[in-house]
Amino acid sequence: MGTSPYLSDLLVSAAFVTEDFVPDGDLSKRFWQQAERLRFDHDWNGRRHYPEAHTEVAVGWSRCCLYCAFWCKYTEMNIYAGEDPGPQKWELWNRDVVEVFVNPQPERVRHYYEFEVAPNGQWIDLEIFREADLKSDAAWNSGFDHATRIFAKKHLWTCEMRIPVEPMGVAAIRPDDEWRINFYRCDGPGDDSMRRFLAWSTTMTAEPSFHVPEHFGRVRFAEKQ
Asked: What torsion do the CA atoms of 11, 12, 16, 21 make, to the nearest 10 degrees?
């Protein structure tokens, strides 16, 4: 057997969604309350913790879609205020955002997909080719659905995503399939020296970088109940 190119063994189990639903940002749904949650507040290399940016993530699946939910603590919101959330926003990562990087074909380590959503509903999706240089195709369209809610008194915002798998070249998710995935968050005002860059599976780079596919964790699609 060959040596795996992946350096992370973190695992999240995605629960089966019995009936597909359109995201509305309400994470009090029974499904999300019963789902396994990941919890992290450490930065991209695991050296520093930010409890004020505590983040939780849960994952679900149906044959046609990957579902993700985020619970995000914050101290001060940093968004492109007053902009139309309809069209995708280039360089959205320069403000507060949650990100999901998905690789449904783990044998193709350096080819994956990126999904970002901001607290005010702005979004972007990208197809990524990470060879010697990073190439991102913003013209690629996943058709993913997303919704957010902000709870200012609790200093909390939530995000719900539904990502169709067919645009990622997958006919259908099957029970016990295992993909590679990572969850990230950019948080806080100021320039990059002041902002917080969090990663579930740490990338271990000297400078903040999320595009390190060898450090993606694993998502396993649990058997249907």
From this structure: -140
* CATH number of the CATH domain containing 175: 2.60.40.1190
> Is residue 6 in some structural domain?
no
In a domain, residue 86? The reply is: no
Walk along the chain (225 residues) and give the pLDDT tens digit of each residue. Answer: 468 999 999 999 999 999 999 999 999 999 999 999 999 999 999 999 999 999 999 999 999 999 999 999 999 999 999 999 999 999 999 999 999 999 999 999 999 999 999 999 999 999 999 987 899 999 999 999 999 999 999 999 999 999 999 999 999 999 999 999 999 999 999 999 999 999 999 999 999 999 999 999 999 999 875
The structural domain count of the chain equals 1
Listed residue (61, 190, 28, 185) closest to 115, CA to CA: 185
Tell me if 5 is assigned to some domain. Answer: no
